[in-house]
Specification:
mainly beta, 26-stranded antiparallel barrel, six-stranded mixed sheet, 8 helices, globular, disordered N terminus, disordered C terminus
């Protein structure tokens, strides 16, 4: 009897399982005009009762979708894809297999589009915030950057575009990358008139998009959805101008050729009015830093990275630049997506700075350092990168991403500095001249293979990356330093030396991932991520010999041959839950890192360090309702010291402040957490966003500074005279930081205005070692602002904003209790087009500083204005007369805070000049090519699988 019951039970369970497993829904999604099979369409099955998401997938390379493990019943099928109208189908699923093909529809009724855009300004679609561009009025010559800064939750801070409190690092056009990682170039060189929608979301890595499981490599991305009829043709502008005084000039172009899937963009510039690069990240992204770049010699650092990395520079520059971006589909079946870009920058920068710096001492009043600094720098940079996304077949795909960059840099610097105690008694003086010539090459290639098995959600992917870098530099130095003892007696030290400084390295890393579905709601991932890197540094310094009239004698104190190898083995597992409105991921990894440091010269020394770390992670997202969601993320990570931080060789590029690496540095371990709450009300056109994040570091890599109150010997055999300093990286506990922001945007329809409020705050504790005593620099920041922008018409466009920044720095080992300072900023932008031809533009900003050092508390007013007239029948040509800095009041002031000092820096800038500019606007739009409609961010983008 028991055997019969058991057999009956087994048969019942097996029958139910078979019936359950055989209920599935499949089909294909196609274009209505061309019948083209549409890849990456979002197909979601919703519950008929409450429209909650049961399951969702993206269509494959053949436009096919497959939903499995379903329960028979009533459902709603929703299909979404950029540039198409969302499609809904009522579905009654019986047991077994059901096939349902979906033909998308395009919305060609422009009047309906306009009505919808006026009604809907912003909406939330899953984890994507979507803005309707037509709801925000800008003038006909506005750029994408002008447009998006009117949108709630998006701000422009010091030239950096942020959304929901995070910096935009990637810009896409219809789902395809545009100018790589150079977000500023993309937004400044596209006209606002081509934009239909702006979408902001967290973009996952290519591997995470495929697996659906986060690997922690998300980037805040902005996708530009182009208008029907505006994404096929040629558009852009060509401009040239001449100014006075001093023979100023400005010339450039940005031209776009869009045809079907092919997008070619060309940007170029040449000027001597301080428009540098295409963005700050152009140079940084090209060179790929190896850790924290230390300051120049005048800033008491002189690390090698600073001689190589060149971003937006202080001072006045003459700049030449060229950029190309290509996006296309290749192959007979258009199965290869191609994106690529090339950048070239050449700049000649002259910089003059005055610095006032107060050091933090543990037992005595802080030393005060004042400096006059002059530099001339010539820099040339080339960057080339491509990405090939190849669909081999319905089950396999390949992503190949090669990158290469080359940079040459020549720099001459002169520093005149004095150090005094709190009683203004002179401690030392310096006149220092340095010369450097550095060349560097960076190259990398990553290959990602992705394989789908027949069983849904079972995947295997392998991502392998190889890197290579080499840098060759030579430096010269002439300096004269005078030191004063406590009795006022002085001594003179002079340096005349030449240094050859060469580094090279290579590395191989990988991440192998296997995913397996555990049920309808649960998925698992098992991964292994090995890495190997090797770096070599050879620094040889020679003193000038008057007998041979050459740099003959090697200074072994300033010379070193050093090598570092790092082997990392990491493995772990992740589990992801997705059901209805909730998604959750939890995982843990184990990492072993082996650091092997070998010093070969002037003495031999080996240091081997091994670190074992557990790396947990958690990610939670809940959608309370349409437009309201919460996301929480936690992740642990590690950071290995760089070869610059490890190499134990003295850097005397500023003789008053020596520095050296530390081969005994340990690996840094950190815990990071961030969260985001977003609420969007479509009917009221409001957006409310809260962001917070924080980090706690163990074995934090900071700096240990010795400030000599008397003549001291450091680093074994280096004499540090009174008032001079020696700095070396050290591991310290007690480093943490947190930040938060709140933004709220809404519109005053009757007044035709958009209003954006934001509040923010940050708190940072940075420990440092000063004269062997731990000092903690505790920095508090509070900021807030209001931006009001017009929504009147395309002919009248203005934006007015106010921001307040409050900062308070407390050093635990400083006699002064705190250092408070405020920065007030008022800015306004005004554009008025009169009778379609006369154009009046003006920008005005006020920066008021309070609480800085003597001579730095200033109110800087910068007013620019211009008047132009549009010529020719279609008004393509514009003649403009403009004035920069009408009040002749421009200035540049910066406060820098570290664990060992607080400084105020004033830099030279351009002042008032006049310029006449001629601009030709190219607008040649054709009919929209239907094949471009399928372009959208891949899964993990706005409508990708919910991997969060």
């Amino acid at each position: 009897m028991q055997i019969r019951i058991a057999l009956f039970t087994c048969v019942t369970i097996l029958t139910s399982f078979i019936g359950y497993s055989q209920t599935e829904l499949s089909g294909k999604v196609t274009d209505p005009k061309t019948s083209e099979k549409l890849m990456d369409a979002r197909v979601a099955l919703l519950a008929a009762a409450d429209s909650s998401v049961i399951t969702a997938v993206n269509t494959d390379e053949n436009g096919m979708y497959l939903l499995t493990d379903l329960t028979p019943g009533n459902y709603i099928l929703k299909v979404t894809l950029f540039e198409y109208v969302d499609q809904f189908r009522n579905v009654v699923l019986p047991e077994g297999k059901t096939v349902l093909d979906v033909v998308m529809k395009t919305d060609t009724k422009l009047d309906e589009v306009t009505i919808e855009a006026n009604a809907v300004r912003v909406e939330q679609k899953g984890d994507t915030t979507q803005y309707n561009a037509d709801a925000y009025k800008v003038n006909v010559d506005a750029t994408v950057q002008d447009l998006i800064t009117k949108m709630p939750g998006i701000t422009l801070e010091n030239g950096v575009v942020k959304a929901q409190g995070e910096q935009i690092t990637k810009v896409m056009i219809d789902g395809q990358e545009f100018f790589g990682d150079d977000a500023a170039a993309a937004m400044k060189n596209l006209p606002a008139e081509i934009v239909s929608k702006i979408q902001v979301y967290d973009q996952a890595s290519d591997q995470a998009k495929f697996t659906g499981i986060s690997d922690g490599n998300e980037a805040k991305a902005l996708n530009i959805v182009t208008k029907t009829g505006k994404n096929n043709g040629q558009f852009g502008k060509i401009y040239a101008g001449y100014g006075t005084p001093n023979d100023l000039y400005l010339a450039g172009l940005n031209v776009n050729f869009f045809k079907g899937t092919r997008r070619l963009s060309i940007v170029g510039m040449s000027n001597n009015v301080n428009q540098q690069n295409f963005s700050t990240d152009d140079i940084l992204g090209a060179t790929g830093g190896t850790g924290n770049a230390r300051g120049r010699g005048g800033r008491f650092g002189g690390g090698d990275n600073e001689n190589y990395l060149v971003s937006q520079q202080n001072g006045v520059s003459m700049t030449h630049g060229l950029g190309l971006n290509l996006s296309d589909k290749w192959g007979k079946n258009k199965n290869t997506k191609v994106t690529g870009s090339y950048f070239f920058n050449a700049s000649d920068t002259k910089n003059s700075q005055q610095t006032s710096r107060t050091y933090v001492l543990s037992t005595t009043a802080g030393q005060i350092y004042n400096e006059d600094f002059l530099s001339t720098m010539k820099n040339a940079n080339h960057r080339l990168n491509f990405k090939f996304d190849i669909a081999l077949d319905s089950m396999n795909s390949l992503v190949i991403n090669p990158k290469v960059s080359y940079q040459g840099n020549e720099r001459t610097q002169t520093t005149d500095g004095t150090t005094a105690d709190a009683g203004n008694v002179l401690i030392n003086q310096i006149n220092n001249r340095t010369f450097s010539d550095t060349k560097g090459l960076n190259a990398s290639t990553s290959v990602l293979w992705r394989h789908r098995f027949a069983k849904p959600r079972r995947t295997f992917s392998a991502n392998i990356t190889g890197t290579y870098n080499v840098k060759e530099g030579n430096n010269g130095q002439l300096s004269s330093s005078r030191y004063y003892d406590e009795l006022g007696q002085d001594s003179l030290a002079e340096i005349d030396q030449h240094t050859d400084n060469n580094t090279n390295g290579y590395g191989v890393s990988g991440r192998f991932s296997f995913t397996e579905p555990l049920s309808k709601s649960w998925s698992s991932e098992f991964y292994y991520a090995p890495a190997y890197t090797t770096s070599n540094a050879d620094k040889r310094t020679y003193d000038f010999d008057t007998v041979t009239n050459s740099y003959y004698f090697m200074d072994t104190t300033l010379s070193n041959v050093f090598g570092n190898q790092t082997i990392v083995n990491e493995g772990g597992t992740n589990f992801r839950f997705q059901k209805g409105k909730a998604s959750f991921q939890v995982g843990i990894g184990y990492q072993n890192s082996l650091l092997m440091n070998v010093q070969e010269f002037p003495t031999t020394r080996n240091v081997n360090l091994s670190f074992n770390s557990l790396l947990p992670n958690m990610r939670f997202r809940y959608e309370f309702s349409k437009g309201t969601s919460l996301m929480l993320v936690y992740r642990a990570g590690t950071r290995n010291p760089t070869i610059d931080q490890l190499q134990n060789v003295i850097d005397n590029s500023n003789p008053l402040s020596l520095s050296s690496g530390n081969p005994d540095l340990k690996q840094q371990y950190n815990h990071r957490v961030f969260g985001r709450f977003n609420k969007t009300n479509v009917q009221k056109a409001t957006n409310f966003n809260v962001f917070f994040g924080g980090e706690v570091n163990q074995n934090y890599i900071s700096n240990g500074t010795i400030i000599a109150t008397n003549d001291t010997v450091v680093n074994g055999n280096v004499v540090l005279l009174r008032g001079a300093q020696f700095r070396q990286p050290v591991n310290l506990p007690g480093s943490y930081n947190g930040r938060s922001s709140i933004s709220y945007g809404f519109s005053l329809t009757k007044l035709k205005l958009n209003l954006n409020f934001y509040l923010g705050g940050a708190y940072t504790v940075a420990p440092g070692l000063i004269n062997n005593v731990v000092n903690k620099a505790k920095t508090s920041n509070a900021n807030g602002g209001l931006t009001v922008s017009s929504n009147i018409s395309e002919n009248l466009d203005f934006t007015v904003g106010y921001t307040l920044n409050y900062n308070n720095v407390v050093n635990t080992r400083q006699n002064v209790a705190s250092n408070e300072y405020f920065v007030h900023n008022v800015n306004a932008r005004f554009n008025w087009i009169i009778k379609e031809r006369l154009v009046i533009n003006s920008t005005y900003s006020v920066n008021a500083y309070a609480g800085l050092g003597s001579g730095f508390n200033q109110t800087i007013m910068l007013w620019n204005g211009g008047i132009g007239y549009k010529l020719l029948k279609k008004k393509q040509l514009e003649l403009r007369v403009s004035v920069f800095d009408i009040l002749n009041n421009n200035n540049s002031i910066t406060r820098n805070v570290t664990e060992s000092y607080i400084e105020d820096v004033k830099s030279n800038v351009l002042n008032r000049y006049y310029m006449v500019t001629l601009t030709y606007n190219l607008r040649n739009f054709g009919t929209k090519a239907p094949e471009t409609k399928e372009e959208k961010p891949e899964d993990g983008g706005p409508h990708g699988p919910p991997h969060h």
